[in-house]
Write a structure and sequence with these properties.
Blueprint (H helix, E strand, L loop, with lengths): L4 H8 L3 H9 L6 H14 L8 E2 L1 H8 L3 H13 L3 E4 L3 E4 L4 H22 L5 H19 L3 H16 L5 H15 L9 H19 L3 H12 L2 H12 L7
Helix pairs in contact: 1-4, 2-3, 3-5, 6-9, 6-11, 7-8, 7-10, 10-11
């Protein structure tokens, strides 16, 4: 996509998202944060697609704002890996590479394992019940080929123990990394065998926690559920089609 095409496309779409941003400017939240959230929504739905250039002048003009909050929002997105700010080349929406996916799996596996250990004995029977119920909802959703619902229940499953962790910075980083994996843009298709396998892994994880083997459950999350090597065949099918980045 030629330089400026992404922002021109953004300015030419129905004015709904842009108008919502303009109306929200009057709110108390910092404008930089509002622009940051707006840009993430545009990437999520694919209006700012991987590999496209972002022209700051055109985008600022289309949104009716100065370049300063836009630049600040893009700096945050760059630090989080969603865009790249390149000298003399401007801003490019990031591709998701195989190496990045591998690194994210390693980090999330380690952090979720740590979250389970931190939650420890605070995981009570009611939390075990919530985990099993959400996993069955995932099974039902995938049986109806409703991946969006499956995905929502999957996030809630992991949130059960993440919410029991008292390390807010860890939890925020895990959720940010999951956004990077799944939401920019959100893919419409899915690999059914992968989702079925994940449901089975959830059962094994919950069984370990229910038996009081918190360490075993934490290790299982890191070494199986979030193992790049274990999940690689599904990752290649879901993310890639003969290319090195998505």
């Amino acid at each position: 996509m030629p330089k400026g095409a992404a922002s021109a496309k953004l300015a030419s779409v129905t004015t709904g998202p842009v108008e919502r941003l303009r109306r929200s400017i009057a709110q108390q939240r910092p404008l930089r944060q509002q622009v940051y959230e707006f840009l993430k929504r545009e990437m999520n739905v694919g209006r700012l697609s991987p590999g496209s250039h972002v022209d700051l002048n055109e985008l600022a003009s289309g949104l009716g704002i100065s370049r300063t909050p836009l630049r600040e929002a893009l700096l945050q997105l760059d630090s989080e890996g969603f865009v790249r700010i390149l000298p003399r080349r401007g801003v490019i929406v990031s591709w998701l590479t195989l190496d990045e996916i591998r690194h994210v799996y390693e980090i999330v596996g380690a952090l979720e394992s740590a979250a389970v250990m931190a939650a420890g004995e605070r995981l009570k029977p009611e939390h075990i019940g919530s985990l099993r119920e959400l996993n069955e909802r995932m099974r039902d959703a995938i049986g109806r080929d409703d991946f969006a619902l499956y995905y929502d229940h999957n996030l809630r499953f992991h949130d059960v123990f993440l919410d029991m962790c008292d390390n807010g910075r860890l939890v925020r980083y895990v959720r940010l990394l999951k956004e990077r994996l799944y939401d920019f843009p959100r893919r419409k298709g899915f690999v059914k065998e992968w989702e079925v396998a994940s449901i089975g892994e959830h059962v094994a994880f919950v069984d370990l926690i229910e038996r009081g083997d918190v360490r075993g459950g934490a290790d299982f999350l890191r070494d199986v559920h979030w193992s790049f090597k274990v999940q690689e065949q599904f990752i290649m099918r879901y993310y890639f089609d003969g290319r090195g980045a998505v």
